[in-house]
Design brief:
The protein is α/β, with parallel strands linked by helices. Helices cover 44% and strands 10% of the residues. Strands 1, 2, 3, 4, 5, 6, 7 and 8 form an 8-stranded mixed β-sheet that branches. It has a two-stranded parallel sheet with strand order 9-10. Helix 1 (16-28) crosses helix 10 (234-251) and helix 12 packs parallel to helix 13.
Length: 429
């Protein structure tokens, strides 16, 4: 049986910006597909993948504004943290909704400027998308081979009809809603169309159980939480697009790193830092720290992010332990994750921040903000543990055990700080 390569693009509203980044990376890496399937936003992106037009989609995402899609999108509660919310928003939404329904004509017009039906139809790549038939109460697949010049727009947008944000779409005699109401990941559709080697892009929330897919297919899933599915502001979407691009490189063994992304040529330097850490732990009799490493990292992530990122397994991950803890320092320093760094430059950025870390944050020249942690208390304990570890040459007396237990994340972050200082000398930073 000949091998057929499939690309599965899940639904997730504006989280589709992550999928755009994935598709950018796949194209740059030379991947091609025989079959593409999508649900909701994945259907719209997938249709452009079929016609080999990712660049216009990248430009569109880069200039997107909430108001450019629709004048009457409802502001959902989980958007309050990042968007100004006014009392009249719901009344305004309801008034327009009852009068005309959700208006997505702007979205359609923008999309159709990028979409070329003839190019799409004549492409050798097969395509299918899912929508939910409200009249028959069943999931329906629309195949490219059955799409016509008259109905292709409605069939594509039927898959994205996420009520009440977007209106239901009529195809033939039936009304359709977003296929994601039933199945956000059209993996089975791709398989039924003949794909036997698939890359599956899953936008499901990281705290939800993933839909099972059989091996050896490759699942790409955002490692960190993305913005609300109805947040269509370029300021939020462009970083997500970059994350999709960079995480694809890591999933496919083209770049080392975990939450941060580095260049392949940096791997030897990263291994040297790992060796520095192991040597330091052996010298100080602290190898037992590795026994509880995974649990310790869970605590650290919960402490800083208030959730645990998804695991990443690639050809680098088993040899990347100290580096994950050093990356936490990057999070504390608010170094953006949506950029690719040379490892030495990344370490220099952290060191530049930590040169001021022992200063009183109220008197520091630079403005330092943490969205999810209380600066003064955290800084105090990290500096305390770092000073104590330096004084006791890395091995704290038993009297510190209760503090280590109660403030374990700060203790581990202080250890990472020490590794950084050791690496600074070795790498001549």
């Amino acid at each position: 049986m000949s091998e057929k390569h499939g690309l599965v693009l899940g639904g997730g509203g504006s989280k589709g910006s992550y999928e755009v980044g994935v598709c950018m990376a796949l194209k740059e890496l030379g991947y091609s597909f025989d079959i593409v399937t999508g649900t909701s936003i994945g259907a719209l992106i997938g249709a452009l993948v079929v016609q080999d037009d990712i660049e216009p989609l990248v430009r569109w995402v880069s200039n997107l504004r909430q108001s450019s899609l629709s004048e009457n999108l409802f502001m959902y509660p989980n958007q309050y943290a990042t968007k100004e919310f006014r009392r009249h928003d719901f009344n305004h939404f309801l008034e327009l909704f009852m009068k005309n329904g959700p208006d997505i004509s702007n979205l359609k017009n923008d999309y159709l400027k990028m979409f070329d039906f003839e190019k799409f139809k004549n492409s050798p790549v097969e395509f299918g998308c899912l929508a939910y038939d409200l009249n028959k109460n069943e999931l329906t697949a629309f195949d490219k081979r059955e799409m016509t010049k008259e109905d292709h727009v409605n069939k594509l947008f039927a898959s994205t009809a996420y009520f009440p944000a977007y209106e239901f779409v009529k195809v033939g005699q039936d009304y359709y809603a977003d296929g994601g109401y039933v199945q956000t990941l059209p993996f089975e559709l791709c398989s039924s169309m003949g794909a036997n080697d698939m890359i599956v892009v899953d936008l499901e929330e990281i705290d939800k159980e993933a839909q099972p897919i059989p091996m050896p297919h490759t699942r790409l899933r955002p490692l960190m939480k993305l913005h609300s599915a109805l947040d269509f502001e370029a300021a939020d979407l462009v970083p997500q697009m970059r994350e999709g691009y960079l995480e694809t490189l890591k999933y496919l063994n083209k770049a080392p790193g975990y939450l941060y992304t580095f260049f392949p040529e940096d791997w030897k330097t990263m291994q040297r830092v790992e060796k520095v850490c192991m040597t330091m732990l052996m010298r100080e009799g602290q190898m037992n720290l590795l026994t509880g490493y995974n649990e310790a990292m869970k605590m650290v992530y919960q402490f800083i992010l208030h959730y645990e990122p998804l695991p990443l397994e690639n050809e680098f991950s088993q040899e990347y332990l100290a580096g994950r803890l050093i990356e936490v320092l990057g999070l504390i320093c608010r170094i953006p994750i949506e950029r690719q760094y040379h490892y030495k430059d990344f370490l220099r950025l952290i060191l530049a921040h930590f040169n001021h870390f022992e200063e009183d944050p109220n008197k520091a020249d630079r403005t330092v903000r943490y969205d999810q942690m209380e600066l003064k208390g955290v800084q105090d304990y990290i500096v305390f543990f770092h000073s104590a570890l330096e004084y006791f040459h890395g091995k704290l007396p038993e009297g510190f055990d209760i503090l280590k237990k109660n403030f374990a994340p700060c203790y581990y972050i202080a250890q990472a700080w020490r590794v950084m200082e050791s690496a600074k000398v070795l790498l001549e930073l």
